Amino acid sequence: MVKKHVLNAETELYCLIGKPVSHSLSPLMHNYAFRKLGLNAVYLAFKVNEEKLQEAVDGLKALNIKGANVTIPYKTSVIKYLDSVEETARRIGAVNTIKNSDGVLSGYNTDWSAAVELLKEKLNTFRGVNALIIGAGGVARAILYGLIENGVNVTVTNRNLDKAEAMVNEFKTIFKNKTECNTIPLTDIKKEISRFNIIINATPVGMTPNINETPVNPDYLTSKMIVFDTVYNPLETLLIKKAKRIGCPVIEGYRMLVKQGVLAFKIWTGIQPPAKDMERIVYLKLKAEASQINKSV
What we know:
Blueprint: E1 12-18, H1 26-37, E2 41-47, H2 53-62, E3 67-70, E4 84-85, H3 87-92, E5 97-101, E6 104-108, H4 111-120, E7 130-134, H5 138-149, E8 153-157, H6 161-175, E9 181-183, H7 189-192, E10 198-201, E11 226-229, H8 238-245, E12 250-251, H9 253-269, H10 275-296
Parallel strand pairs: 1-2, 1-3, 4-6, 7-8, 7-10, 8-9, 10-11, 11-12
Antiparallel strand pairs: 3-5, 5-6
Helix pairs in contact: 1-10, 4-5, 4-9, 9-10
């Protein structure tokens, strides 16, 4: 049974900082978990303009906010305002989780392990696997780290290829050429795509309200590819819909949202949250929103 949420002077505050945040379902799943576990805590979403990011981070200390998630576009830029960064997050160069321990802000990254766990559900081994990551932002960095760490050969493409090349070169230095890692222009995807076992969208392309966009032409896909879209709103992006129609194994973005959120919750509280329930309520919320959109069309 989920307990009633009663707020008082002892309520601990957790939050999301980013821009935009109005679409976020992090408050839904975290507040559900707090209630389910009987914790006196609440989670809010704060829209933060770029020029106010440092003030927002300092505000975590000033208001004794116990923990925070960081979303686009601040996963990389937030690092310089933290007191410490866990080693893996430092190597990735992106933080999506902050813990406040008596005024000391520590940064973590739960995106990479969430992505790896989801891919392991679809693959028996990572040996000999070739993956294409579309994007070069914070979530792309995290997934790239996780894949290289597990021996996957990774290719990165991005609208700004220079940014992708800089990221790949940085990771080659970190891993000392542990696995094959390179870039291709977006214009080369059609002729190169057949060699990939995994296609990962790590960009916002396809996110509500731009639901008719895809990061790659779905006609290029084959049924043997795992298609992983980190966009979770809508429930099924156009890329995921097209991939399902041709029989591709898929990983929807809402599962990534929940996985990384479960890991963040444990970092903040030391408690394992009700992961299956969190996934269920996020899924039902997105399904209801999709139903409303279909009725209005």
